[in-house]
Amino acid sequence: MRKYYEALMYASRAHARWEIETSLSIIKNRKKMLILLLLALPILIPAMAHAASALPGFIGGKSAYGPSFFSPVTFYGSIAVGVIAGLITGCIGAGGGFVITPALMSLGVKGILAVGTDMFHIFAKAIMGTTIHKKLGNVHVGLAIAFLVGSGLGVTGGGVINRALFNYNPVLSDFVISAIYVVMLGFLGIYAMADYLKSRKDAHASGDAHGGPSDLTALAVKLQSVNLPPMITFDEEITPDGRKISGVFVAVCGTVVGFTAAILGVGGGFLTFPMFVYGLGVSSFTTVGTDILQIIFTAGYGSISQYAVYGYVFYTLAMGMLIGSLAGIQLGAITTKVVPGIQIRAFYALAILAGFTNRLFALPEKMGQMGYIQLAPATGKIIANIGVVIFFALVSFFALWIIITFIRNVPRLRAESAEQQLYSKGGVTQ
């Protein structure tokens, strides 16, 4: 379990680095910012007009997306969610996407819309950035093809199940999504808090140093010994004659990742790394490129073919999250220069546990609505609202702490920037 958590965190950090590079690529390029504004204005202007009840039936309107109640609070909340997720990604160096779907559901968005919207937000950010070509040089063609075949099947299956659950019973759909997040965030949050407590005792401990196992695990050795065509040779640059794995096993991993991503609305990287590195014995170097490729494919194919065409993407909220995350990532990345690492770990653990508590407190109300337990509707609503308050109180405290820390250290950051420029000029003249 500990090894899985370490691989999960390594995957999360790799995804965060990609998000930061992508965001920088968008913000520093005037042409891309102009394109983003041209895409965003037709969607954002009506939302910002506070005319929620009078929005026409086009993208973002209530009549176009009946399953979700739209209000100015929901829209501005989506920007706040994007900022918080961006701060977590930029400041902590770990993916903040874990909190997006639970946060949107807390704002009143149906689970299936939260999943579809989150996937579309990931895809929109990916296609806006061009830094991906730097990472795609690490992609192994054979592994990528086998993985994407499986991923396509998994995303399709996950989307079909999510839509079937929602069409059968919207409350059951929300319950299933919330329950899965409870398990996932509970596991991640407990280990993140344990990692923080351990780091307090060991000042030299550093999660960033972990780059996956240098030796093959017993499972990887066993799977690589199975001769099941088609066999794929990889990592020739690292190991003499390379290593071999059956494409069937790679496709199975892709199916699991795609299915999970489609159900939860996440990139899937938190599963790709443990499966590739620990399960299949693929080097972390090769895994990085394949993971980024699968995120683009999974998010794009899933958000469009499984959710958007059925009306389960809330474009207004996706744009709000995209804008908020771009700002949050930049602010968070800059703040890391003046924030102690041990405090960052503590806030990350709290943010994950806040998401866990939020979805856990939402379950009694859903179970009562479905008749699984005897619970007065008013009582279930109170319990759910307590979870919402705890979640937003903790993540808002984290966000305010980051912003205040940044503002207080602006003079120091400016001085360091001026010093670097002076040093750079001195180096050039010399």
Which key terms come to mind for this protein?
two-stranded antiparallel ribbon; mainly alpha
At a glance:
This protein is an all-alpha fold and 430 residues long. The protein is built from 16 helices and two strands.
Describe this structure in words.
This protein is an all-alpha fold and 430 residues long. The chain has one domain (2-398). It has 16 helices and two strands. It has helices at 2-27, 30-48, 72-92, 100-106, 111-128, 132-136, 141-168, 170-201, 218-224, 247-264, 269-280, 284-307, 315-335, 341-369, 377-408, 410-429; strands at residues 231-234, 243-246. A two-stranded antiparallel sheet has the order 1-2. Helix 3 crosses helix 15 (377-408), helix 7 crosses helix 8 (170-201) and helix 14 (341-369) runs antiparallel to helix 15 (377-408). The longest helix is centred in the middle third of the chain and has 32 residues, at 170-201. The termini are far apart.
Q: Structural class given helices, strands, pairing? A: mainly alpha
- Give the N-terminus to C-terminus distance in angstroms: 54 Å
Helix content: over 70%
Strand content: under 5%
Which strand order does the major sheet show? 1-2
Please indicate the count of domains.
Answer: 1
Our Rg estimate from Cα atoms comes to 22 Å
Shape: globular
Please provide the count of β strands. 2
Q: Overall mean pLDDT score?
A: 76
Order of helices and strands: HHHHHHHHHEEHHHHHHH
As an assembly, this protein is single chain
Described by strand count, sense and barrel closure, the largest sheet is:
2 strands, antiparallel
